[in-house]
From TrEMBL:
SUPFAM superfamilies to which the protein is assigned, alphabetical: Phospholipase D/nuclease
The organism's place on the tree of life at top rank: Bacteria
InterPro entries noted in UniProt: Diverse_PLD-related, PLD-like_dom, PLipase_D/transphosphatidylase
UniProtKB keywords: Signal
Protein's name according to its UniProt entry: PLD phosphodiesterase domain-containing protein
Organism: Shewanella yunxiaonensis
PANTHER family per record: GM01519P-RELATED, PHOSPHOLIPASE D - RELATED
């Protein structure tokens, strides 16, 4: 356990030191929406973690994001300030963003990032590679430490959205995250030259479950050596569950995230959850109120009627300042199994994420981390913000959520 000094804000205010829950190689990082009762004094916040990572960088910083957006006076501003300071002292920075994220980004933020000294910015059309998007949100510093989590490079993800991530100081895992970035950076360069991006894996790569902590990613075809396939690993872990599973995710459905109508059926995760419940495992599933539109709500109701499955809908109330687009929601992507296994990643639980988009997930076979993650999940599960899904209720179609 150690202490972190929070970043100095643009207003020049210095905040108090904060303890962070950790196990060897990993620290749990949370965003609790302001004006809720969901904060935790023992969990680090991403602004602190990202600023300290940038301050500690000696040679390189690599960042991959779906989109970027900041606002004056909001919490991404100090992050950008510390990133600029790293570039000014000679740290080489590479920033990779998905082409489809441009429409969700604001131009001043893009311009601010591109103006940072020693920073190279590239857009990648991951649809031309895996068929999806770069949905992963991660940072690698000097190839030795990394951050992976649900937090987008978005001021709202640092203040108004329920998010969960991990600071990674385990050198092996950090090196694997670095390898994923290198694969995608090189893929973008090949695309820019009009060349084909080679498939790295023609068969599913199994995760090394002998490790106490391991990284899985998607899509399997473009994972570097040593990184297992997240799409096959998630059902394998659910098949191991014996007693109880807690799942927290923004969107869930046996459908593919797609502009196609109807959306393609995708049963990989849904089948695994139903199979676990059928053999007596208690499944506790929390989803965002953004997940209540049709036909999503119908699939959720079909889970709620089954023995051993409880579904709750999480609604974060509007902030005092008024409506904020694409904010005030549950966006964490976590799972805890039997007090033994913690899953923390970047994928929503529907098709299009673990099969053809770039996403990263950490599996920690550690009871301390699993129990702390369960406590975080139970805090939300037992809060006033989570309500049981009522199979007889007609739920409204939510406002379209671009920040997915």
């Amino acid at each position: 356990m150690h202490f972190r000094l929070l970043c100095i804000s643009l207003l020049g205010l210095s905040l108090n030191a904060q303890a962070a829950f950790s196990i060897p190689g990993f620290e749990l990082v949370q965003t609790a929406p302001v004006e809720t009762t969901l904060s935790n004094s023992d969990l680090a916040d991403p602004v602190t973690v990202w600023c300290q990572q940038f301050d500690a960088a000696k040679n390189t910083i690599d960042i991959a994001q779906f989109y970027v957006t900041s606002e004056p006076g909001e919490p991404l501003e100090p992050v950008l300030k510390h990133l600029r300071q790293a570039g000014e002292r000679g740290v080489k920075i590479r920033f990779l963003m998905d082409l489809h994220g441009v429409r969700m980004s604001n131009e001043p933020t893009l311009a601010a990032i591109k103006s940072i000294p020693n920073l190279t910015f590239q857009l990648i059309d991951f649809g031309k590679i895996g068929g999806g998007i770069v949905h992963a949100k991660y940072i690698v510093v000097d190839g030795k430490s990394a951050f992976v989590g649900s937090q987008n490079f978005d001021w709202r993800a640092l203040k108004h959205i329920h998010e969960t991530g991990l600071l990674i100081t385990d050198s092996k895992i950090a090196a694997q995250v670095q390898a994923i970035f290198n694969v995608d950076w090189q893929a973008q360069q090949l695309l820019a030259e009009g060349k084909a991006v080679p498939v790295l894996n023609h068969q599913v790569v199994a995760a090394d479950e002998s490790q106490s902590a391991y990284l899985v990613a998607s899509p399997n075809a473009y994972n570097p050596a040593g990184v297992g396939d997240s799409e096959s690993e998630l059902p394998k872990l659910l098949a191991k569950a014996e007693h109880e599973v807690y799942i927290t995710v923004m969107t869930y459905a046996p459908l593919s995230y797609s502009y196609k109508k109807p959306a393609p059926y995708y049963a990989v995760i849904d089948d695994a959850i139903r199979a676990a419940a059928q053999r007596g495992v208690k499944i506790h599933l929390m989803i965002s109120a953004w997940n209540t539109g049709k036909p999503y709500i119908d699939y959720l109701k079909s889970l709620q009627v089954l023995p051993n499955i409880d579904v709750k809908v999480v609604t974060i109330p509007e902030a005092k300042q008024g409506f904020i687009p694409f904010a005030r929601t549950l966006h964490s992507k976590t799972m805890e199994i039997d007090g033994k296994i913690a899953w923390i990643g970047t994928s929503n639980w529907e098709g299009g994420y673990m099969n053809n988009s770039r996403n990263l997930e950490l599996v920690l076979q550690n009871s301390a981390m699993a129990n702390r993650l369960q406590q975080l999940q139970l805090q939300l599960w037992n809060s006033v913000y989570a309500a049981p899904l009522d199979i007889n209720q007609e739920y409204p179609n939510p406002h379209p959520a671009s920040a997915n």
